[in-house]
Design a protein that fits this description.
Order of helices and strands: HHHH
Number of strands: 0
Largest sheet: none
Shape: globular
Radius of gyration: 19 Å
Length: 168
């Protein structure tokens, strides 16, 4: 809806390969932020009633991760590492095959964010429909980045959870 959005003129100063890396970073951060926003809201809403961790995790969402056991951290670290390894193998050229002046080179055939993971079959076959869906994902990811930052700031300011604010 905002059209081309580049208020700091990053695109003007970047070549095509750099723009491709920027888009990869934006899609990735948007997806993580969408998960974070859902995590904030669900984590606070199920407080005290979840089967996870004996329902002992409580308080604002920014404190939840510090309350979980070490085993969870190990599993989380392994899962994130595996996901990032897969993403790196699909998207990036192997370091030994990258020219020195092009660090972080993405594969020519790789489209930022397209990891081939579509278990629900949501990816449209029609190129125009795919472009519309990708734009929607970018817009929702941008909104989620702002929302997650806002949630973090709000909880840091007064120590109250987001759900608590919404109910009060």
């Amino acid at each position: 809806p905002a059209g081309f959005f580049d208020p700091l003129n990053f695109a003007e100063r970047a070549d095509d390969l750099t723009l491709k890396r920027y888009r990869e970073a934006e899609v990735t951060h948007g997806r993580v932020s969408m998960l974070a926003v859902v995590g904030f809201l669900v984590g606070e809403k199920v407080e005290g009633s979840s089967f996870l961790f004996d329902a002992s995790v409580s308080g604002p969402a920014i404190t939840h991760l510090s309350q979980v056991p070490v085993g969870f951290w190990i599993a989380l670290t392994v899962a994130i590492g595996a996901a990032e390894q897969t993403r790196a193998e699909k998207g990036w050229v192997e370091p030994e095959n990258v020219p020195v002046d092009q660090p972080g080179l993405l594969r020519a055939e790789y489209y930022p964010g397209d990891l081939g993971f579509d278990p629900l079959g949501l990816k449209p076959e029609d190129p125009e429909e795919l472009k519309i869906m990708q734009t929607k994902e970018l817009q929702n990811g941008r909104l989620a980045m702002l929302a997650a930052a806002g949630f973090l700031a709000q909880e840091l300011v007064d120590g109250k959870g987001i759900i608590e604010h919404l109910q009060g």
